Amino acid sequence: MKKKFACEVDCANCAAKLEDAIKKVEGVQDATVNFLTQKLTLVAEESEFDAVLEKVVKEAKRIEPDTVITI
C-alpha cells in the first residue's frame, strides 16, 4: 500500500536525512520525503501499514524533532 502524508521539514538536507532513516524502519518497503512539496510517500504492506506508520513517525521525531507529519 502506498500513501502520501503532509510532512513539514525545514530544509532539503533534513528531508534527505529523514528519508534515509525512514527507509531503514522495519516494514517500510519504500519511502520518499520531498522538501519542495512537503510530502512523505510511504510504501508498506497493507496489513501492517498502521504499525509501520507509527514507527515512521517516532523515527522522524527522533531524527528531526521539528518535523511534523500530518496523518
Tell me what you see in this structure:
This protein has 71 residues and is an alpha+beta fold. The chain has a single domain (2-70), classed as Alpha-Beta Plaits (2-Layer Sandwich). The chain has two helices and four strands. It has a four-stranded antiparallel sheet. Strand 2 (28-34) and strand 3 form a beta hairpin. Helix 1 (12-23) crosses helix 2 (49-63). The mean pLDDT is 97.
Q: TL;DR of this structure?
A:
The chain has 71 residues and is an alpha+beta fold. It has helices at 12-23, 49-63, and strands at 2-8, 28-34, 39-44, 68-70. The protein has a four-stranded antiparallel β-sheet.
Features:
71 residues; alpha+beta; Alpha-Beta Plaits; 4-stranded antiparallel β-sheet; 4 strands; 32% strand; globular
What's the layout of helices and strands?
Elements: E1 2-8, H1 12-23, E2 28-34, E3 39-44, H2 49-63, E4 68-70
Antiparallel strand pairs: 1-3, 1-4, 2-3
Helix pairs in contact: 1-2
